[in-house]
DNA sequence: GCGAGTATTGGGAGCGCTCCCACTGGGAGC
DNA sequence: GCTCCCAGTGGGAGCGCTCCCAATACTCGC
């Protein structure tokens, strides 16, 4: 325990004294508020510079009842779901938008019960001015916590079951439909789906899009082969598909990871892509470009998702009542289909 | 601007009143401090439950001069460097370790001058109890800011030029050496390096490891072909290499992205991997497994890097003086070499 | 030259919590 | 029986800032 000299930061009162003004004036000058004469304003600025004064955000937060921070909560029982580059891009977008509103970003990975409890307390105690919630499972206790905490909350993607008041989502149904229609338009008639976990809204929505397109084309949809959004699960699903439906000629994978897995399984089984089997993914992450062959996939504006969530939250915090947003997704054609 | 009823949170004083104790006692009871009789402690707990009281973290922070948050700062002029899954894993590790110390994580992407300035202010104003700094370029103003802010700072990876007092790094030199030695041990004699940006310490260290191994084996090192850690730059570097040294039979790529790019360029040039040219990468990210052929690479404990940074920071915050840490990296052999 | 405004100014009461400190009332020790 | 010690208690002074409000200074029109 090294006892370091705790040398305190200069406070507003010291600025006050050095500049020869009252605390109110100093405060106004520092916050660029009106009702400060030019002379005093400059005196304050000089004192601030001389002292190296920086306002204490905690004290300010206590007085204004605003923390100046927004929380981004990523839920899921396995912290590694966060390793998905998807979230990194969401963060990039959200971070940029929050910065515009001069808010800081608190990142909460709510994987364990303990951390979920911490997040709940953070929200209830108004430790942040608002929160963005992502990847909520069915019955996720976080959803209830968010409701109890009386602070602005924006959902990223809709949770299963309920439709929250404020959310930003991607048009998963439309994207999946477009992908499937594309496969059909290229003459594929035996198109299967490798879908993601059907206990998530994304998983369901993308399957729904696939199904809609198949039915609309008069093709009976295959039974969905369920994966869990990971590459290995995609490979396994593809293998199962090949076993059950050897004549499959098209595959809609509910995300790129599983699409990549499917490609690997197809390669292993000696099927040519796209000649024998065409494959389409979803997400348009880096893996889609690296895959061999490069994966035709549905691009979704991930950074925009983060950005819009943050903007919606900022609007909410400032007392407005924004409307939910559904961002478009569109097909990017590459070699795999 | 909807005027919502601002219904305030219950405060300690309300608990105090309901429980019929003094503020001191209530505070002690809530913080599990000693000097509280069993009876009063229970009375307080009851009142807390009844009121749904949650301590206000801001007020607590002001009184204790501790914010209960640690900042993770990722620097770089392009926010997209953050999209590298590398950071996501660091965050997972750091987040878990911070949680153990009951600290929240503030994530700061310092891409623009404006955001760097904000980060500087955050640190100087002690808006966080400590900070973890990553990916500092040469002359990064953040390094100076961190020094001026008198709060605990831990570096993730060493910045170019200086060796900070506290840091956690990966043994890049050792890992690169091991990778190169492996190529040499497999009979490769014309081993080239596709190195990362040489204005970063990682880039330099990995090149140094390659060079050491080559010299130790009595092989003259090739001139480094510099990339920028991206897949395309790896492909371009490989193409250049093939043009200048058509007889190259081994490649050490300073990260997996560039390794994947090299594989693509080799495939394009009709070279077989590993028969004609063996390739080794660095990082062991998902892309290494997805690559075709799967990339032999140097695994580094990324989550551990984040975890150890956070632990070191926690130690620092609690007044200890931890020693810098260098985490081991080791080769993972796959098909590419 | 005078009253009505309008622009500045500074005092002071919070914001909700921690923690020092002075005080009380028993046991334990002798 | 009388100190001494200490668990238990509550009062109150901050932590550093914002912001309401009353007080003062200046302006302008007539």
UniProtKB/TrEMBL annotation, chains A, B:
Pfam families: LacI, Peripla_BP_3. Residues 10-64 form the HTH lacI-type domain. PROSITE patterns: HTH_LACI_2 (PS50932). CDD domains: HTH_LacI (cd01392), PBP1_LacI_sugar_binding-like (cd06267). Keywords: DNA-binding, Transcription, Transcription regulation. SMART domains: HTH_LACI (SM00354). Signal peptide: none annotated. PANTHER family: HTH-TYPE TRANSCRIPTIONAL REGULATOR GALS (PTHR30146:SF109), LACI-RELATED TRANSCRIPTIONAL REPRESSOR (PTHR30146). This is LacI family transcriptional regulator. It comes from Streptomyces rugosispiralis.
């Amino acid at each position: 325990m090294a006892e370091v000299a705790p040398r305190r930061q200069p406070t507003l009162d010291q600025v006050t004294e050095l500049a020869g003004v009252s605390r109110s004036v100093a405060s106004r000058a520092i916050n660029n508020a009106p009702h400060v004469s030019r002379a005093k304003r400059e005196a304050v600025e000089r004192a601030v510079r001389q002292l190296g004064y920086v306002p204490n955000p905690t004290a300010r937060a206590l007085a204004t009842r605003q923390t100046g921070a927004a929380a981004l909560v990523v839920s899921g029982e396995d912290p590694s779901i966060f390793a998905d580059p998807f979230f990194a891009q969401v963060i990039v977008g959200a971070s940029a938008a929050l910065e515009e509103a001069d808010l800081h970003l608190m990142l909460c990975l709510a994987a364990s019960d303990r951390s979920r409890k911490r997040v709940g307390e953070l929200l209830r105690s108004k430790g942040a001015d608002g929160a963005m919630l992502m990847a909520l499972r069915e019955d996720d206790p976080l959803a209830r916590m968010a409701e109890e905490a009386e602070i602005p909350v924006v959902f990223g993607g809709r949770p299963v079951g309920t439709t929250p008041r404020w959310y930003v989502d991607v048009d998963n149904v439309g994207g999946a439909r477009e992908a499937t229609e594309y496969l059909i338009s290229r003459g594929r008639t035996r198109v299967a789906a490798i879908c993601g976990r059907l206990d998530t809204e994304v998983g369901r929505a993308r399957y729904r899009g696939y199904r809609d397109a198949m039915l609309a084309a008069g093709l009976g949809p295959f039974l969905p082969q369920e994966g869990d959004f990971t590459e290995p699960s995609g490979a396994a699903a593809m293998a199962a598909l090949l076993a059950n439906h050897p004549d499959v000629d098209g595959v809609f994978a509910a995300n790129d990871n599983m699409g990549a897995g499917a490609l690997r399984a197809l390669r292993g089984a000696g099927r040519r892509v796209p000649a024998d089997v065409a494959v389409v993914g979803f997400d348009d992450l880096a893996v889609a470009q690296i895959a061999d062959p490069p994966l035709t996939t549905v691009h979704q504006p991930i950074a925009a998702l983060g950005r819009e969530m943050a903007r919606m939250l900022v609007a909410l915090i400032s007392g407005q009542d924004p409307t939910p947003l559904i961002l478009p997704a569109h097909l990017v054609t590459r070699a795999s289909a």
